Amino acid sequence: AGHRWLPDRATGLAAIVLGQWFAKTRFVTEKYNLTVFVNDFQVGQWSFDQASVSQSVLVSPRFFVGGRERIQFRLEGRGQYTYQCLARRFIDPAKANRGYYGSWLRPAPLEVDGREIPRGTSSGGTDGVVVKPGWSLPNNRLTQLPVGKQAIFELTAAPRVVKTGSMLEQFVLTVPIPGGTSVVPKTVVGPFDRYEIRAGEIVFFFAQPRFDSVTVSFRLTGIVPGQYTVEPAVIRNALDPTAYAVIPMSYSGEEALTSLKVLPEGATSADPYVLSPLELIALGKSAYARKNWKEAEKHFSALFTNPNWQVMDQTVKELAPLLVDIYLALDQPDKVVHYFEILKVKWPDYEIPFDKILQVAACYERLGEYERSFLVFRAILESSFGNDGHTAGFLDEQNEFLRSVQVMNRLLAEYPPEPYAAAARYALAQRVYAKAGEATTDPALRKAKITRIHLVGAAWEMLDRFLTAFPEDPAADQAAFAAANALLDSEFYDRAAEAAARYAQRYANSPLLDSFWYLIGYCHYAQGRHDQAIEMCRKVAEWQKKDPATGRIEESKNKWQALYILGQIYHSLGQPLQAISFYQLVADRFSDAREAIDYFKRKSITLPEVTRVKPGEPVLLPLQSRNIAQCELRAYRIDLLKFTLLKRDFSGIVGINLAGIRPEYEETIKLGEGQDFHDTTHEVTLPFEKDGAYLIVCRGEDLYASGLVLVSPLTMEVQEDPVSGRVRITMKDVDGHFLNNVHVKVIGSRNAEFVAGRTDLRGVFIADGIQGRATVIARKDSDQYAFYRGQTELLPAPTPSAAPQVPVDKKPQAAGEDRRELLRGLQESNTLLQQQQIENLRQNYQQQRKGVEASKAF
Predict the structure, then answer these.
(1) Radius of gyration from C-alpha coordinates of the chain
(2) For a designed S-S bond to 570, which of 1, 578, 778, 827 qualifies (C-beta 3.0 to 4.6 A apart)?
(3) Tens digits of per-residue pLDDT, 597-612?
(4) Contacts of 123 (CB under 8 A, 6+ apart)
C-alpha cells in the first residue's frame, strides 16, 4: 500500500518473504471478466488482463434503495482485484477546501502567415527587450473564444491537503472542460502518469509527486457558440476521497473566471489583449514584408516608445534599417535621419544600399542640413569609386597592366578630387613605378615597346600631378620622396637635387627628411660638387631623432651610405687621412671601404731591375716607396755571370746569403713620415766610378727590394723570333763599333740550361731553342757587362695566368655596384612605400560594395 515497515531494517526481510509468497501463489496469467451489481442491478462489466488499467463506473441514484446499499462482484476466471466506492455530492465551491495556486485561460499564440509567433520579452539571446525592474508582462485573460480558435488552459497546483499541509502521495486531478469546447489532441502536457478525457472533464493521475507543485496544460478549441459555466478543478487523495481541494479559475489574486462565452465563427473577441515585445517585432516584420508601412510603423513605434522596457541592441540593429525604409515610404525625413544616425553611431560598419542612402542624403537636404547631405553624397561617390575600380583590378589580374592603368586614369579624371581619389592616384603612380623593374621581362610591355625609362617617366608625371593637386595630403611627403627617386633613377641629378631640396623645406617634419638630405648629397656627389655633397652627407650622418613611441634615439637609415660617400669624396680629393677616417667607420659594412683602407695603408719599396749607366756619367738610382719612413741601402760589386748561375732574375735576391761580404757602399735614406698614402720616388746618387755590376739591396722596415746597376760602355741589340725560339744578339761599344769575342749567355724562362758562346767579328751571337722570355748577359773583359730581359714568349707556351690586379688610385664613380650600394637605403625605403601602396591599390580593386558603410557618411 506504499507504507514502510518499521524499523527500516525489517523492510528487506519483508520484501524477501513477499517475493517468495508471490512466486508460489501468483497465477501464471491473470485474465478474467468482472461484473458489478448494485442492489442486484448490473451497473458495469469489464474484461481484465495484466495490461488493463483501472476502470470506474458512475452509478445512477435510481439504483439506490436508501440506507445500506449492497454491492456485488462476479468474477469469471482467475485473478485478483481491488475496488473503491465513492459517494459524490455537490458542494458549494465557496465552502469547499481551497487548494494552493490556481489555473487560468489565455489566448493561444498569435499567428502570422500561418505560423504561431512567440509571446514574451526576449528570445533568450540578445534579441528582444530588457524590462525595467518591478514590471512584468500582463496576462491576457480570456473570457471569449470564437469557434475554431484556440485557448490555452494551464493549471498549477501543490499536492497538499489544505487543513494538514501534508503531501499527497497519490492523487487525482480532475479538470472540468468548459461547455462548447473540446480538448485539442496531443496538446496535453504535464508530469502526470496518465490522463483520461471523459465526458465533460479530463482526469490526471499522479502516482508519486516528484515536485512541490505540478503544472498541466492543454489547448481548448471553440466548437459550439454559447455562454457556459466554468467549474473549478478538484485535486483529491487517491487513497482517501475525503482529502480534496478545489482550484478555482484564477491566479495571483485575480477574480475567478466562472463563465466562458464561445463566439460564432469569424467573430472577434472583446477581451483586451496587450501585445508583448516579441509579438510587436513579429507583427511589424510581417507588415513590412507586405509593404503595409503604416501597420509596420504602428507596431515598431509601440516597441520603441514603451517606457517599460529597453530594446536590445541586436534588435535595434535589425529593425533600424527597416524603420529607415518605412519612414522613407511614409515620407517622414526626420524619422529617417533619426534611425540612420542610430545605425551610424552604434554600427558604423553597417552597409546601406545605394538606393536607400541616396534617399537619406535627400532627407538631410530637405531638413536643411546641407553639410551632412553633402557628406553623405560624398560617401556615396567614394563607395561608387571603389566599385568602378574593380574593373581595373580585374584587368590587372588578367595581366592587362596597361589597360588597367588606362581605366584607373579615366576614373580619376571623372571623379572629384577627394581624398579617396588622391589615395588611389598616389597608389597607381607607385604601381607604375614598381612595374618599371619588369619592363625587360614583361611580354606585353616589350610588345608595346614600353621601356623602363617610359614607366619611370610616367610615374614621375603622375606623382608630380598628385603633389600639385594634393600638396597637403597625409601621404604627400611619401609621394615627393618617390618623385625625387624617379628623377634620380633617370639620372637627372640636378633636377633631383633641386626637387629634393624643395620637398625637404616643404615637409620639414616628415620622417623622410634625412632621406631627402641624403638624396641631395648623392646628386651633388654624382655631379662632382664635392663641397655641397660633403655638407649634406655630414647632416645625414649626424642626424638623430627621438622615436615618440619608444623614446629611443634613432639615426638616419642612410647614415652609413653618407659616411661611405664622404670617404669616397676625400679619397677622390687626394686627402687620404680624411678618407681613411670615414672608411674605417663603414669598413664592416662595405667591402670596398676595407679595400680602400688596405690600398692607402699598404707599404712597399721597389727598385728598377736593371739600371744602365755609361762610364763617366753620374749614377742615379730611382727608389720608389710607400708609407716607409726610411730604408737602409747597400751596394755590392758582383760577378754578374756567376750571379746568374745562382739566380735567373732578381726577385729572390734577399734569399742570397751576403753575410761577411763588405758592401761597396751603404747609406740610410730618409723617405718620409711613414704615412704618405701614395707612391713616392727618391733619386739616390751612388758614388760608382769603376765599370762593373753592382747589386743594390734596400730594406725598409720588414720589406726588401733589390736591383742591378751596370756601369759599362757595352750596348746590346737583341732580335727575337717567337716561332723558332731564336735569339740574335749584336754587341757594340759606346761608339757603335761591333765587338768581337764578347762572352754571351742566354736562357729562357722555361729553359733548364744556359746557351753560352762568344760573338763573331760582326759582334753577333745566335742562341736557338730559347723557350719563354729570354734573359741575355754579356761580359767583355772582367768588368764590362750588358744585360737584356725579354718580354716576348718564345716557342709555344701555356696560357699565362691572369696577372694580379694592382690597386689603382682613381676617382670613385656613381655607377655599377658602387652606385647600387650607395642608393640601397633610398631604394629600400621607396620599395617599402611602393609595396604598401600596391597593397592599398589591390584592396581598392577588390571592393565590390552594394552600398555605403554608415560610418563613412559623415
Answers:
(1) 59
(2) 578
(3) 888 989 999 999 889 9
(4) 278
